[in-house]
Amino acid sequence: MIDEGEPSSRIRAPRLDVAVDGQFAGTLTPALRHELVGWAFLPLAALAMAGVMALLIALMRIPGAETVMPWTTQEFFERGLITHVTLAFVVWYLGIQGALTVLVTAKDLHQSNLQLAGWGVFFGRCGLYSAAAGLVAMLIPALSNLGDAILNNYIPILSHPLFYGGLALVALGLVMTILRLLVLTRAHRTSEPLTLGVAASGVIFLIALVCFAVAWATRPLEFDPAAVNEYVVWGGGHVLQFANTALFFCAIYVLARITLGETPVSSRMFKLAMVLLTAGSAAGPLLYLTYAPGDAEQREMFTNLYWYVLPLPGALVMLGLTALLFRRRADIGRGAPELIAILVAMGLFAYGGAIGFFESSVDTRTPGHYHAMLIAVTLAFMALYFALFLPVLERRTERRRLRTWMYGLLGTGQFLHSSALFLAGMFGVARKVAGSNQGLDSWPKIASMAVMGLGGVIAVVGGVIFIVLALRMLLRAKTGPTSVSAALGAGMNAAE
Hints:
Blueprint: H1 30-60, H2 74-111, H3 118-144, E1 148-150, E2 157-159, H4 161-188, H5 193-217, H6 225-260, H7 267-290, H8 296-309, H9 311-327, H10 329-332, H11 337-356, H12 365-392, H13 400-426, H14 443-475, H15 481-489
Antiparallel strand pairs: 1-2
């Protein structure tokens, strides 16, 4: 659908490589520019370190790896898995939330002809530095062999005060940035779809934190440390998936607007999807009041919340995106590389959701499902760097062909990785183990895990290309207003 206020005529996909969205160009003050650079750099650093661990994990699970690799112990695998998951699917996602929150804050202030007050600058700086300190704190036990590995769902833990403290600091940093946006949004009564979408994702994140806090306060005293961690993160972890989904749809919404000049759904439909996601997540804390702590039914209700509430708003946006891409299919090949990212992300997201209905909690079908969906979200976030973050920071984007290959490699590799994990799970390969513990005693298991390793390596290559390109462009001196103005004049923006 074409957004309200946009020309009804079809806007051809842009050919230039500097894509500056008209809603954000020229909105950054020096203070908010500093914040955006920090929030863009933080998840990149986390993803780079997570990528190293992902490669090692993929290699460790290849049949026969234990005979040639010196670090294939189960203990190393577990610590590497925890580091990878927390950096790639916690810090990376939260960092993107921080960056988008800063951007919509800047846009709203600019449109209202207001400057960020002193308290707002203070909140923003403290939030960014808190998150950065949290990342460093998390890395210390991960790299120093401190704490026991606890492989619970959603947020696996190294049971060490520095790791817990690091997670808390990252969360605190994002909370400060989100609260600032919510105060400003309420004061200005903003109703722009993307602002409301980012704010909704932030609110859902706050709801997830409430779930974590309530779960910790009501934890059964008879549980051992591993069971306590699983209980604490189970409910909030499910709610976090609502926040991740909302943020994913925000990314798809703005990417389609930048690359095609159209949005996948109308403003009203997008707002409805955000309201549904927020309302669904709000049921999370109520489940702690409805069921006794540790009740198996409570655990099942969080799963039902995920399976039966989350798909509806997702279907609204994904169907609209499918229709848009089909109608504009002629523009995909000649448009910006980020159009390929949208297409690949949509395919992976749908594929991961489909195989998720056949998952099992004890074998590798589960990681096959969630890796496809999480990497789909990651692909959309990667595209945000080249279509939004870097251009708004006046960094020139380039290497169109390499970016196209990057998205293709990551998508293809992850499809192979997830498909092989799903097949291996059907043959009985257990999750969260490596080396000889996998029990690869038949050729279907061996073949599946070999393809899994190959897919993982291909995906990591795509990830490395992204990190190198994005870091190089982010750290480069800005191109200056002339380049940005030229891009705007060439029709790269799609203003609402």
